[in-house]
Amino acid sequence: MKLSIIGLGLLGGSLALDLRKRGFADEIFGYDLSPVSQGYAKQVGLIDEECTMDEAISKGDIVVIAVPVSAAIKILPDVLNKINDNQIVIDICSTKGTICERVKGHSRRRRYVACHPMAGTENSGPWSAISGMFDGKALIICDSEDSDEDAVKTARRMFEVLNMNTMFFNSFNHDVHVAYVSHLSHVCSFALAQTVLDKERNEKNIFSLASGGFASTVRLAKSNAEMWVPIFDNNKDNVLDVLGTYIEKLQNFKQLLVNDDIKGMMDYVNNANRIRKVLK
Amino acid sequence: MKLSIIGLGLLGGSLALDLRKRGFADEIFGYDLSPVSQGYAKQVGLIDEECTMDEAISKGDIVVIAVPVSAAIKILPDVLNKINDNQIVIDICSTKGTICERVKGHSRRRRYVACHPMAGTENSGPWSAISGMFDGKALIICDSEDSDEDAVKTARRMFEVLNMNTMFFNSFNHDVHVAYVSHLSHVCSFALAQTVLDKERNEKNIFSLASGGFASTVRLAKSNAEMWVPIFDNNKDNVLDVLGTYIEKLQNFKQLLVNDDIKGMMDYVNNANRIRKVLK
């Protein structure tokens, strides 16, 4: 199988690494807007050949779009214009509503499979690519009824090689769900980092006391702006909705503490503890 | 060395485990309000002898108080009343201002060393005790000038056996710092868990999509109410202060998103990314 990857970051790079290692891809063509990322990917053997975008589009049996969602939305119609009827296009962005909407009615819509492999780390760039990153994680295919059966089948096969567990959602529900279980976590972490970093301006060495708990909660604040801002923007309504609820919950807690309402705080924490049942 | 531990939870249990294993404690006496916890600690050999509180106070060369801070504040004066001049009392609570204030001027204040070993997990109870939990973590000793030199020396030696790195703070600064780098993280997580659990009432299977990022951010929401509510209550002013700043930061982000201010959001995330420099 010939694989083209547009966007050689953490995800594109890790995909290349394991799809070659596990025998799915015989030849990998890569393009990245950044010559440094592209050159690095060739240098360390993530890809076999550096391409222009058009060459990448024409050469792959599968063309994977692994760029921030705002860029993916811009290039996807053009990519579909340029492929032939046997090629398949897969995007791996974290929001699916706006991108599926963008190519609704496109004459080659059925050659496109909207995917969201729920894997990653807080690092970015092809130098952060790691083997095994997708193993055991969830792959969501959205609006699969709008794609050709053989295209979905090939996409599934590719992600099964990465040991992912496939689920099917419509793109609307997908975006609601990920606002809760992924996007909100990132906003929490970014805001937490800001809060503590601001304080540090006046009080040096505040981080000498940073505990494992803090590290765990703030880890996602290391995530890349170029990837995440387009996600928030493309899932604006859901993120605003869930963020509003989150701020309310914090204000509830604040009021309990202001009132010295010990029982209220106990109930609040016990209620939150129910997360144990759903998350090991 | 004879060691008495009042409070046989995660911390008391883990302390017992490694202080025996590493040869610091020859004999360990234990008391817990819960007969189940106390019986379990004896059963699995965390302690050598089950005691009443008074027996525990009289038998140990070192008496460690490992109960929630609200309970520790209540019992500490009485514990100091009952020890002799050679014994040492150490508490290991997460807030230090109110407890140090409580025994200011006590005739045996100098036999007490106010400690905060910054270690733990989201689990609780002696059945969660683990070896190595304290290794490499920070130990903060507060207001050490109010303790006898030999008492501080012995406390340091005990925590050095646990491979902890000792730092000295006054109790006021300690409480400000931990509000930022520990207490706030817990409030964030509790509120995040509540937000997503509420949503789940209406939308089943929302957790099928839970990512590693979510798990990391929400982990602390599994933490125990009996321990944490007294911490918030005893560090009320600092927690309210930092929580207010955090809510403001979230509202800032919300406004940027409402305004589709891409550049503003990029700056926000890039600013948060500075956490990389201080936290590996």
Top keywords for this entry?
homodimer, 280 residues, alpha/beta, eight-stranded mixed beta sheet, 8 strands, 53% helix, globular
Major sheet attributes of chain A = 8 strands, mixed
Largest interface between protein chains, with number of residues from each side: A-B, 89 and 89 residues
Task: Choose one word for the global shape of chain A.
Answer: globular
Instruction: Give the fraction of residues assigned to helices of chain A.
Output: 40-55%
Number of helices of chain A: 12
What fraction of residues of chain A sit in β-strands? 5-15%
Q: Please identify the structural class of chain A as seen in this structure.
A: alpha/beta
Characterise the protein shown here:
The structure is a homodimer of 280-residue chains. Chain A has 280 residues and is an alpha/beta fold. Chain A has helices spanning 10-21, 35-43, 53-59, 69-82, 97-102, 149-161, 171-202, 212-218, 225-234, 236-258, 262-273, 275-278, and strands at 2-6, 27-31, 49-50, 62-65, 88-91, 112-117, 138-142, 165-169. The first copy, chain A, has an eight-stranded mixed β-sheet, sandwiched between helices. The mean pLDDT of chain A is 95. At the A-B interface, helix 7, helix 8, helix 9, helix 10 and helix 11 of A face helix 7, helix 8, helix 9, helix 10 and helix 11 of B.
